[in-house]
Amino acid sequence: MRYLMVYTTAFVLACGADQTTTESEELLGGGAVTVWTDLTELFFEYPPLIAGVESEPWAVHVTDLRDFRAVTEGSLELRMTATNGETHRVRMAEPSRPGVYGPVVNLPASGTYELIVAVQGPLTDEIFVGPIQVYSSVEGLPTTVPEDPSGIPLLKEQQWTIPFATVAAQVQSMHRSVSAPGEIIPAARALAQVPAPVAGLLIAARNQRAPVVGDRVRRGTPLGVIAPSDDEGSYATLVARVERLEREVARAERLYNAEAIPQKRLEETRHDLAVARAALEAFGGSTDEGYELVLRAPLDGVVTERSLVAGARVAAGDRLFTIVDPSTVWLRLHVSAVDATQLVSVVGASFTVEGSERVFRAERLVAIGDVIDPARRTVPVTFAVSNPDRALKIGALASGWIAVGDPEQGLAVPTQAVREEDGVPVVYVQTGGELFERRVLTLGPTDGRWTIVWGGVSQGERVVTMGAYQVRLAALNPDAVSDHGHPH
């Protein structure tokens, strides 16, 4: 497992010039250390250590990276191993206050000790810190004090009380992208409107179980019942005609089998029945349902509109239901005419919808428009998107990125971390447990979730994805947060 260690205090003398490293560095005269693992952020401040002398309490801050909250229960153990192999342990059964342990250390001999911090409880982790130095006497402490580290301060106690998260910059491979606005629309054959085929009465007693908005229906499910109007007459007459022709066909078949009529007469009767049935089916009816017309769902889906009112009269063509199958939707993006020439090598798309930061991925390219809209100066590009959890709503506005061309590889940060300030893209980098830096970026391609950066951030550095606004406020008013006021 790979660890990132950052040293950020004014009482540290390090063997290397870099403040950010993946290797252990010797810490002299006490100091502050930040270590990240996959599960834990360990940030601790410790005083100078003198052999045989009980130290001041350390301030060990433990953050659970699964939710970036303070660890509130569980034990903490310091394991310090001398060069002769002897290990000294200091254990605390629980934090002295949420997220903070205050162990006191007393090591018998001077020298270098390898430190491991073990956390046991709801969060269990073992964190290799590296060497710490124990001095033989106060007179042996280093006299050269480096300058205080620069940065934007935001105390752990503040981070724990706000929505906060960081993610390490990492190498990603992604395509160049064309950004475009769009909307979510129904997929083809996934939207149906159910009108009244004939004028009539929606008999109250026969429509009490009609589905309502939000109900899921299967194809063929009864939606409502219409009793056609007497003055209309066409539906009832058509049902009666089909029933009469069915009897005539049955009679003609008997006569033909008895050689009482020619075959031509039987064929003419069957033809008349087929025509009448086709006309009845065009209304959506059948003789099995009598003289009432039963409306049925034309597809599997969800009722999104209902205009049916039990007991009301309707005219032919009145829309009674709208049904949508939301399991697959379409994303229609409107690409600027300036970018239209890049659409010859579309390889996919990702997008967000209004009110959410969740990034969705399109599964299939449906169509690329061949005509530029003269008013909007855009080209429509349509993708199919699976929507099993129905998170995507028909009509929602979207912001999309269409991936084009060959993939590029580079260092990337979560797109959520990138902010625009004073017209330039920036991120806030956590350089230590309670210190941050504002970095101006040079941006590369993005897929909506990650953005390649050609400058401003180094691999492994942790960028703020949640809580950047609070870091910015701390940068604007640094006197509001001070290490001197840290409640240790």
Q: What does this 3D model show about the protein?
A:
By secondary structure, the protein is mainly beta. 12% of the residues lie in helices and 42% in strands. The chain contains four helices and 35 strands. It has helices spanning 156-159, 234-257, 263-282, 468-476, and strands spanning 4-7, 20-21, 31-36, 40-46, 49-50, 59-64, 69-70, 75-81, 87-92, 100-101, 111-120, 125-135, 152-153, 165-168, 170-186, 191-195, 200-201, 216-217, 222-228, 293-296, 301-306, 313-314, 319-324, 328-336, 346-353, 360-361, 364-368, 378-386, 397-414, 419-421, 424-432, 435-440, 442-446, 450-455, 462-466. Strands 15, 24, 25, 26, 27, 28, 29, 33 and 34 form a nine-stranded antiparallel sheet that branches. Strands 1, 2, 3, 4, 6, 7 and 10 form a seven-stranded antiparallel sheet that branches. Strands 13, 14, 30, 31, 32 and 35 form a six-stranded antiparallel sheet that branches. Helix 2 (234-257) runs antiparallel to helix 3. The two termini are 31 Å apart.
